[in-house]
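Hi everyone, sorry if this is the wrong subforum. Our group has a chain we'd like a structural model of before ordering constructs, and none of us has done structure prediction before. Sequence below.
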Amino acid sequence: MKRKKQILCLLLAGMALLGAAACGQSTAGTEAGQETETVQGTETAEHTVTSVDDLPGARIGVQLGTTGDIYVSDYESDGSGTVVERYNKGADAVQALKQGKIDCVVIDEQPALRFVEQNGGLRILEEEFTLEDYAFLIAKDNEELLEKVNGALAELREEGVLDEIKKNYVGAESEVGKYPYESADVERPNGTLVVATNAEFPPYEYYEDGAVTGMDMDIMRAVCDKLGMEIKIEDMAFDSIIPAVSSGKADIGAAGFTVTEERKKNANFSDTYTTSKQVIIVADEDAVQAGQTLSEKFYNSFIKDSRYMYLVKGLGNTIVITIFAVMIGIALGFLIAVVRTNHDRNGGFTVLNAICKAYLTIVRGTPVMIQLLIIYYVIFQSVTINKLVVAVIAFGLNSAAYVAEIVRSGIMAVDVGQFEAGRSLGLTYRQTMGSIVMPQAVKNILPALCNEFISLLKETSISGYIGFMDLTKGGDIIRSVTYDALLPLLAVALVYLLMVMGLTKGVNLLERKLRSNER
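Answer:
Right subforum, don't worry. Here is the predicted structure as tokens:
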């Protein structure tokens, strides 16, 4: 563990130097950049949003799948030229607004207050966009759980617990933080309630001290106390929560869900537990922004609350996924390559070859992200399985398809006369392949295999789509807490770069060793 921390410190130090250079270059070019921005601004006419009436024709940022996304989508088809930019996180939309890429952000009021508080130069319009009720989301066929949750909510409301939880997060200034919920010391014989959330939506759900907390999470803990259940929180992308609940991967969705008719078609909703509203965030040209120094950004991103541990944990998971996926890819890839080669040369394994060709066509013809989602939400729909195992299987099967074609090309590149010579000496097919053909093929394909493994390492960065903590997800969590994109993204990029450089160097050494007997 100590060695890991030393390595991380070296990575962060290098990242800080690059960040300082980037910041210095940005500062030095500010005056020159102002004129450029003015010129570029003429290419896309500025659209100032001061009220809801100004939304037609504006560039509107929303979080993908939220009710803000649903409501503003109507503007896209009204002929006003409105452009809706959809982001996976509300924090990303706010960053885009600060950079002038969009004109406004439509989002829930309480997260908007946090965003404005943490980001200078922004303000919320006084005019509300729309009112909405929040509820918890439960699968259509789980009427029993719906009844139990509603019963627990009714008891909590009658006891005043719901009001205290809400005051603790969204009450008056004198109330916020004064009513923390303490889990009851009760027996929990009724299993575990799996709660799917998107922990980038403060104050309803967010990370604090390495754990997911917030108003929705406290309510869920109180519900579990009433139901005699343990709670397990799964953090995932917002638009993945409904599929997770519908497929049985999670029992309940708690992420500030607004009750809409469209969502009712796919899931049930509990009784509402709070009312909120959609608001509009715009740039405040009159605000005086007090920028942070590089050292302050570094402290907030990595040192404060030991946030670097998100990267450490994510890095460990990324390495584990890559190692085991590579093992699956090599083992299965070589088997497929042997089957395909035998069929091409001898006409054998007809049925197996047809299956292998179909497998290669499907895997190589579809994006790995889609394969990951299908394996998690469809193939393992009714199976409780560790997400690490799902990721290893998905990336391993994907890699095997590419390894198979790489190995097959290497085998076919070996002169067929050497194979015939081995057989003429009395060697079996397996002995000939293992002792004569394969060693030469491996030497030829090593660079291509290295590129495949490097691609596999980087492809694991999409593991967050099923709510699994990988290196990229760790950086995203830091960004969602600090609202600063530069240092977390730069740190993640540097870690990937160093791993790729190390892998490349190792393969180069192995390649030279394998070719040393040719001199």
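For your construct planning: The domain at 309-518 is CATH 1.10.3720.10 (MetI-like fold). The CA atoms of residues 32 and 488 lie 27 Å apart.
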